[in-house]
Every structure is written in structure tokens, then in C-alpha cells.
Hints:
Layout: H1 4-10, H2 16-24, H3 26-37, H4 42-71, H5 81-107, H6 112-131, H7 134-149, H8 154-161, H9 164-190, H10 195-214, H11 219-226, H12 232-254
Helix pairs in contact: 2-12, 3-4, 4-5, 4-12, 5-10, 6-9, 9-10
Amino acid sequence: xxxxxxxxxxxxxxxxxxxxxxxxxxxxxxxxxxxxxxxxxxxxxxxxxxxxxxxxxxxxxxxxxxxxxxxxxxxxxxxxxxxxxxxxxxxxxxxxxxxxxxxxxxxxxxxxxxxxxxxxxxxxxxxxxxxxxxxxxxxxxxxxxxxxxxxxxxxxxxxxxxxxxxxxxxxxxxxxxxxxxxxxxxxxxxxxxxxxxxxxxxxxxxxxxxxxxxxxxxxxxxxxxxxxxxxxxxxxxxxxxxxxxxxxxxxxxxxxx
Length: 257
């Protein structure tokens, strides 16, 4: 399920017009992503759409605070990476918390039939994730590197692949966390709770899940090793992405949802 700024990040590879179009329709895109997994009735979809509008407008405050942090990203100063990365991770945690509240509200409204359909969808996603070949996963990571920096050199590819076991382990942990989360949600749904109490319990469960996501990751360690190897053209490519991201955040602030 996409977070607000995931729309920005996912559309960085498209032209400006397409990126702005995505932000113009962020409410519809979020609704589509959510209802792919939550089988809502028509009256519930109306409530969802109202909640999404509130969520997007709420996140504009986060976007405003994020802008000066974006300006602090400096690919020529690896020693500053740690502080900037921690700030960005903090913003991720805020957005994840707010989004979890949005999802918890919708899930708390599900009846027995809808719950069963939701878990069938999530379990099907788990099976597809489990089938993904390890080499395909590394190819995806290298492709992400290429999108960010425009290209990847042989030595950089070798550097990324020294973390192969780590990436595979994280993928396994991600699946384990998903399964654990789904089991905990099933327990919550079986308990005799009011809708508000159920929402609160689901939200707390998501909060614990998000904390686990951030534990023991090596993102910053990998960045600190990658950044000094960047070529001039790679740095310029990344600067272009950063500048574009800043403009998209500013545009997001102007959109009337």
C-alpha cells in the first residue's frame, strides 16, 4: 500500500507532466491501492475517500517540514549522510504511523466475509513473494540503483552483491513479519471488541510492525560505501532526482484534494 510520498518516488522516472498528474490524482491512486487488498462495500468506499482526503491534507505539514531536509542531501559529503538519513527515516516513521491509522480505520469496519477475502489476498501475495528467485531479487536491487544514479559500474555492482546474503535475509524477514502481522490481525478480529477498540488495537499492531521494519537495516552503511564511488555523471543524475523531488513536494502542497 502506497504512502503519500511513495507517489512522488514511484513517478520520478516519468516526465514532469506525468508526475504532477499522479499527484493530482493521489487520492484516487491511494483508494485503488487500498481497495485492491481491502474488499470494501460502496458505503465504506465513500468513508475511505473522505479519510484519504483528510490524510493527504494532513501530510502536507510533513511535506513542508521535509523540504529543508531534502535541501541538506549532499552527495559530495559522505560524512553528512548519517544525520540526513536519520532525519529522512524519521519522516518515514511519521508517514507510516499516519498511514497505519488510515488503514486501521478501514480494517476495523470489515465484516467476517470481508476479513476472509482480505486474508486470502494477503496470503496470495505471500506465496508470490516466496516464489521470487534470489537472483531476480538482486537484479531488482541493481535496477533500483540504476534508477537512482542513472547507471551502475562493474565495481559498484560487485559492492552491492557483497550484501547479497543480507538482502536475501531481509527479504525472508520481511515475509516472516508479514505472516506474523497477519496472524496477529486474525486474533484481533476474533476478539469481542467495539469498532473503535479494534481500530486502536490494529493501529498499535501496525506501529510495532513498522518499528521492526527499521531494525538492523544496513541502508546507511551501504550508502556510505556507495557514495564515494559515484562518478560525476551519477552524482549529477542523483542531483536531478533530488531537485525534481523537491519540486514535486512543493507541487503536492498546492494540490486541492
